[in-house]
Amino acid sequence: LHTPQLLRWAKHPISILVEKPVAISERQVRALKAMSPSFQANIWVAMEYRYIPAIQKLLSLLPNIGAIKTITIRENRFPFLSKINEWNKDIDKSGDTLVEKCCH
Fold first, then answer.
1. For residues 1 and 94, what is the distance between their CA atoms, to the nearest angstrom?
2. 35-74 burial, b if ≥16 CB within 10 A, otherwise e?
3. In the beta sheet, which residues pair with residue 19?
4. Of residues 72, 14, 68, 24, the one with CA closest to residue 44
5. Amino acid 85: pLDDT
6. Which residue, 10, 36, 48, 97, has most beta carbons within 10 Å?
7. Distance in angstroms (rounded) separating the CA atoms of residues 5 and 11
8. Cα angle value 6/103/32 (rounded, 5°)
């Protein structure tokens, strides 16, 4: 879902926030690589953990505790939560289980 949008819009001088995964197949990766020299957009890939209150608190404490060397996050939930139209359970839309639990 995201690769076609990036291929369409990244050639414009705009800012793009794209959710992961950016690509779900080798074909998509090759297409992005081939077109990347023509990209003019500023592209950010979203990492939703940055919005978790605990992470926000940690970031606010950095001036007092110094630079982070290592961080570990443990999610205590079962995999495959329901998403809009169950996209995370459709290999053609998600890239399979890698998206659900192993991408972080």
1. 8
2. eeeebeeeeeeeeeeeeeeeeeeeeeeeeeeeeeeeeeee
3. 46
4. 14
5. 80
6. 10
7. 11
8. 25
Distances (CA, A) of 27 to 30, 32, 33, 40: 5, 9, 10, 22
Structure tokens at 9: 């819009």
Question: Which amino acid type is present at position 20?
Answer: K
Structure tokens at 91: 């290999």
Taking only the tens place, the pLDDT of each residue in 48-97 is 676 778 888 888 988 998 887 877 766 666 666 777 787 777 777 766 55
Whole-angstrom Cα distance, residue 66 to residue 71?
13
Q: Residue 28 in contact with residue 3, Cβ under 8 Å?
A: yes
Cα distance between residue 31 and residue 28, in whole Å: 5
In one-letter notation, the amino acid at residue 84 is I
Whole-angstrom Cα distance, residue 8 to residue 59?
35
